[in-house]
């Protein structure tokens, strides 16, 4: 049987599951194989897909059963009526992390993992199968493939504690990378000329998206524990902003992770001002020392608009992500996405879905954790040994980068230029500040190619710093 046969079994069984109660046992695999004229392998594949979607649980020795669902309660989104307003500069240059690397250069500037850190075999196979499927010749739904919507929703719902209503597949909008989701959020939730609160420093792509959307960035300082909630409250009060963009877990560029106390206080401020928090969970798959729970898992009143990407963890060639939003804001963002790109390539969605539903996906993520830890620690040791005038602000518990502070006397533009002339690419920290930088920083990526060259790269950076300070 073909790949489409497994899909047909999944589609048929999903309809059957909707009409039965939790705990109902599915027919035995032998009976399903006879019913659909499929091989046992095809039936097993269909079962794996249903398990991955959170619809079925497999009990060894007993069979497959319809998975139980949590009790839901009525949700109140009326506050969004007042919070959502009528939606209606100069753009930064292309960021250093997007630059290509010369053949012999040491690239410490990139924002993406090296290909050896990706599930290469699974991605290649999934793309081939997707290209042979109906996805290659049909238009996908505007909000995304239902199965992929269900997977994104299931990932967040699995982290949702008891007493909080989990998100549903209908709350998910699949986007061609979360950069486009950011742009939609700024346009749909704020609009040209309106204020948007951001941490400083913050992701350069968010600064770029804000410039494109014409919104006014209101920066608030953020440290290793996150932003001060009083500063966030003051920014809301002084500017009238109703939108706060943040990366609570493994922030880019600093690697910071908000403390539980900061999370609770900031969320209380967001609710108090009837505002939205755009939670960019860009490093969800790059935990090293911790697996934190997204803030969106604790919110069922629609205050958190959640972004989750697969582009960095699956493949840069598979630009697939999701925006998860509840209430009228979801419809407004879907309308903006329709005007911007209509829909996301069904081939890329099908390929991404196949990769993340494979049992090997979880094994890959477990192995990736160890690989990132080794690279992070090697680069940190190299900085300590070869860059005596520099200091790492925080050893990040996840993510891909080290945030390195330099002496204030260092001419950063000259340092970047001199290092590039010596064959080392680094990223100036100024690109991550929406306002004037608070100090002199560079961002070094530890997930790039050939970590054996980290000592050579940091030695060159250290030498150029020393020459400036001599």
Question: How is this structure best described in words?
Answer:
This protein is an alpha/beta fold. Helix content is 42%, strand content 14%. It contains 16 helices and 16 strands. It has helices at residues 3-18, 29-36, 40-52, 79-83, 120-132, 146-158, 178-189, 204-213, 229-239, 260-272, 311-314, 328-341, 346-357, 359-386, 412-421, 454-469; strands spanning 56-59, 63-66, 106-107, 172-175, 195-200, 216-223, 226-227, 243-246, 276-280, 304-309, 321-324, 391-392, 401-406, 424-425, 427-428, 440-445. The strands form 4 sheets. An 8-stranded mixed sheet has the order 4-11-10-9-8-5-6-7, with helices on both faces. A 4-stranded antiparallel sheet has the order 12-13-16-15, covered by helices on one side. It has a two-stranded antiparallel ribbon with strand order 1-2. α7 crosses α12 and α14 (359-386) runs parallel beside α16 (454-469). The protein is globular and about 80 Å long. The chain starts with a helix and ends with a helix. 47% of the residues are buried.
Give a quick precis of the structure.
With 470 residues, the chain is an alpha/beta fold. 42% of the residues lie in helices and 14% in strands. The chain has helices at 3-18, 29-36, 40-52, 79-83, 120-132, 146-158, 178-189, 204-213, 229-239, 260-272, 311-314, 328-341, 346-357, 359-386, 412-421, 454-469; strands spanning 56-59, 63-66, 106-107, 172-175, 195-200, 216-223, 226-227, 243-246, 276-280, 304-309, 321-324, 391-392, 401-406, 424-425, 427-428, 440-445.
């Amino acid at each position: 049987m073909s790949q489409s046969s497994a899909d047909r079994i999944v589609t048929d069984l999903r309809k059957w599951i909707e009409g039965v109660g939790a705990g109902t046992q599915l027919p035995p695999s032998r009976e399903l194989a006879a019913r659909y004229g499929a091989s046992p392998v095809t039936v097993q594949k269909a079962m794996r897909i249903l398990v991955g979607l959170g619809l079925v649980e497999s009990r060894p020795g007993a069979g497959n059963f319809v998975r139980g669902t949590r009790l839901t309660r009525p949700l109140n989104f009326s506050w969004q009526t007042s919070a959502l307003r009528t939606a209606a500069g100069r753009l930064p240059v292309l960021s250093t992390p997007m630059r290509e690397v010369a053949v012999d250069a040491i690239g410490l500037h990139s924002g993406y993992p090296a290909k050896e850190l990706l599930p290469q075999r699974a991605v290649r196979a999934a793309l081939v199968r997707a290209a042979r499927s109906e996805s290659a010749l049909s238009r996908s739904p505007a909000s995304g493939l239902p199965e992929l919507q269900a997977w994104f929703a299931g990932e967040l719902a699995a982290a949702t504690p008891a007493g909080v209503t989990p998100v549903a597949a209908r709350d998910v909008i699949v986007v061609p990378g979360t950069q486009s989701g950011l742009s939609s959020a700024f346009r749909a939730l704020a609009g040209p000329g309106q204020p948007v609160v951001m941490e400083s420093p913050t992701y350069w792509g968010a600064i770029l998206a804000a410039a494109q959307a014409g919104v006014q960035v209101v920066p608030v300082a953020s440290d290793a524990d996150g932003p001060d909630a009083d500063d966030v409250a003051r920014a809301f009060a002084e500017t009238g902003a109703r939108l706060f963009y943040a990366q609570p877990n493994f922030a880019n560029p600093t690697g910071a992770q908000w403390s539980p106390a900061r999370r609770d206080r900031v969320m209380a401020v967001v609710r108090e001002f009837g505002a939205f928090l755009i939670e960019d969970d860009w490093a969800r798959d790059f935990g090293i020392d911790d697996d934190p729970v997204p803030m969106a898992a604790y919110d069922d009143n629609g205050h958190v608009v959640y972004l989750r990407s697969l582009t960095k963890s699956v493949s840069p060639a598979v630009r697939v992500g999701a925006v998860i939003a509840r209430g009228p804001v979801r419809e407004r963002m879907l309308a903006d996405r329709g005007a911007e790109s209509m829909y996301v390539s069904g081939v890329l969605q099908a390929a991404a879905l196949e990769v993340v539903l494979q049992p090997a996906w979880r094994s890959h993520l477990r192995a990736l954790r160890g690989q990132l830890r080794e690279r992070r620690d090697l680069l940190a040791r190299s900085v300590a040994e070869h860059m005596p005038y520099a200091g790492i602000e925080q050893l990040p518990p996840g993510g891909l980068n080290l945030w390195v502070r330099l002496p204030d006397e260092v001419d950063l533009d000259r340092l970047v230029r001199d290092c590039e002339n010596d064959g080392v690419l680094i990223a100036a920290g100024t690109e991550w500040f929406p306002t004037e930088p608070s100090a002199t920083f560079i961002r070094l990526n530890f997930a790039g190619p050939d970590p054996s060259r980290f000592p050579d790269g940091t030695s060159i950076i250290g030498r150029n710093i020393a020459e400036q300070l001599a």
